[in-house]
Structure formats: C-alpha cells, structure tokens
Amino acid sequence: MGNGMQTETEKEVGKEFEKEFEKIGTENIADRKKEAGAEIEMKTPPEKTGDVIIEGIDIVRTFRMGEVQVRALRGVSVKILHGEFIAIMGPSGSGKTTLLNQLGLLDTPNSGKVIINGIDTSLMSDKEKGKFRLHNLGYVFQDYALLPELNASENVYISLMMQGRSKAEYESAAAEILAAVGLGDRLAQLPSKMSGGQQQRVSIARALAHKPIILFADEPCANLDSQTSKEVLDLFKKFNKEYGQTIVMVTHEDWHAAYTDRVIRLKDGMLE
Ligand SMILES: Nc1ncnc2c1ncn2[C@@H]1O[C@H](COP(=O)(O)OP(=O)(O)OP(=O)(O)O)[C@@H](O)[C@H]1O
Ligand SMILES: [Mg+2]
User: Fold this and answer.
1) How many domains does the chain have?
2) pTM, whole model, 2 decimals?
3) Band (27; pLDDT cuts 50, 70, 90)
4) pLDDT tens for residues 157-183?
5) Which CATH number fits the domain that encloses residue 28?
6) Full domain range(s) for residue 32
7) Is 38 close to ligand 1, i.e. is its CB under 6 Å away?
8) Is residue 53 part of a domain?
C-alpha cells in the first residue's frame, strides 16, 4: 500500500543519488574513493549462514502529527539471521514500513537500537550511516525509484561510481547483474521504455550491484500483476538460495510470504 512515508523515503534516496551523480561527474575519482571508503571499511561479511546479521532491540518510533502522537513502533525486538529471507506482514498502518526503515537505517528510532553485523548503528553519525548504507545495504521500493534520465546500466552502476570504483569495474558489474536479472540485452534502455516488471528488475539489479549484506524491499510487487510479481519473487528466491543473500521484504500477500523462510508479523506497532 502506498503511504507518504515511503514516497518521501524514495524521494530522499533518489535525491541523494542525483546529488552524488552530479558531483561524480566533476570530481576526481581517487579523491572520491578516499572520501567514500577510507573511514569506513565496514564491509566485513559475517562468519557463516545462520549468524545473526541484524538485530533490532526494543525499537520505538513515534511521529508527531499536530497534537497527536502516532506510535508507529512500540518496542519491537527482532533478530534476523544471515541468509534468511524474511517477510514483514501485518495490516495497513501496523508499522511495517516504519520497521523496515529502522532496520535499513533510513530512519532513526526514538529509542532502541539496530545492530548490523555486530556494529551498533546508533553510534554512527548521519554521514557515517550514509556511507554504511552505500557500501552495505540495498533497497527496493514499490515505485522502483529509478532516475528517468539514466538508462538501465547507469541506474545500476551509480552506487558503484559513488563508491569510487573504476569505470571498467562498474560497467562490467552493471552488465553482469543486469544479465542475472534477465535484462542483459537492455543495458542502454531508459526506464520509460520498460514495463513495470522490467523497471523493478533494474531496481533489484541496482540494489544488488554492490553485493549488500542485506537487501530491504518494501512491497516490491505492489504495482505488478501476479505473473510479474511471481517473476520478481523468483528472482529474490534465486539470489537468496544461490548467493545466500539476506532479504527483508514487506508484503501484504500470503502467497508472497510463501517464498520466504519466516514471517515477522506486526499489529499496532508491536510484534503479534
Ligand atoms: N512520516 C510520518 N508521519 C506521521 N505518521 C506516520 C509517518 N510515517 C508513518 N506514520 C504512521 O505510523 C503508522 C505506521 O505506518 P507505516 O507506514 O509503518 O505502516 P505500514 O504497515 O507500512 O502500512 P501500509 O501497509 O499501508 O504501507 C501509521 O499510523 C502511519 O500513519
Ligand atoms: Mg508500508
């Protein structure tokens, strides 16, 4: 289901990319690399499948709406293991997007914390969080959030550029991951010339291009018909099974949840 929060997040991420893309065009890549990678070399894969990769501890998130306090999350604790494919489910307004945004470091809780791969992310500055996201996390949104003026390949390699990789490296990485999502012949195609399913596959390629520790997806199939949804879920399953990709996906549909290993169920901002 659409809601203001998600759209704002999408816009923010899009803007972040756009800003960075402009900078990259004019900046020396070596300086960029120093800036992006030197301080935070946090890409340390966990020991093995089954280790705890992400832990949310007593997360509280409230929003102020004029006079009213909306208690979106009222003390949620979750543990997700490396290699798990998780569904977050619950009625509309139960806090699914809010929880995903806390676990994915797109928002900051009022209290509680999120530990990712042993790192207490509550100790990070906003800038550090930004870098951590760029290097370690991947996101898929229901509206794809592709940049319309960039073709498939450019949309995918932008985050690799931001990490300071060489042109040869990011171009071949984009081609490889686009082939893996079945779009090897669409590298130069603009999003406006693609179907919804194809656009979502580009956004999945973008989310996975830098081999994130965790892939977060908020209702990735919400705008797709059931056949196309199935193709997207099959892709997630493939990356989960073949590469051990940890995936945390919000969904409304029981048949989507059937693709996952485990369901985290929310009701009124709490675990059910
Ligand atoms: N930015 C915000 N400002 C104010 N209230 C918010 C904000 N974001 C979310 N909320 C409120 O927090 C609660 C949980 O919202 P959330 O978006 O997490 O629900 P959801 O389970 O993802 O719902 P849906 O299935 O409709 O997407 C709702 O009552 C919502 O109105
Ligand atoms: Mg939502």
Assistant:
1) 1
2) 0.86
3) very low
4) 998 998 889 999 999 999 999 999 999
5) 3.40.50.300
6) 4-41+82-111+119-271
7) no
8) no
Intra-chain end-to-end CA distance of the chain, in Å: 20
List of E strands, the chain: 52-65, 68-81, 85-89, 111-116, 119-120, 137-140, 214-218, 246-250, 262-267, 270-271
Of all ligands present, the nearest one to the C-alpha of 218 is 2
- Amino acid at residue number 107: D
Is 92's C-beta closer than 6 angstroms to any atom of ligand 1?
yes
| 216 within a domain of the structure (yes/no) | yes
4 CB-near residues (< 8 Å, 6+ apart): none
Q: Which two tokens stand for residue 146?
A: 């592709």
Task: Pick from 10, 11, 59, 63 the residue to mutate for probing ligand 1's pocket: most ligand atoms within 8 Å of its CB.
Answer: 63
Instruction: Name which residue sits closest to atom 17 of ligand 1, judged by CA.
Output: 97
66 within a domain of the structure (yes/no): no
pLDDT at position 36, please? 42
Whether residue 129 is contained in a domain is answered as: yes
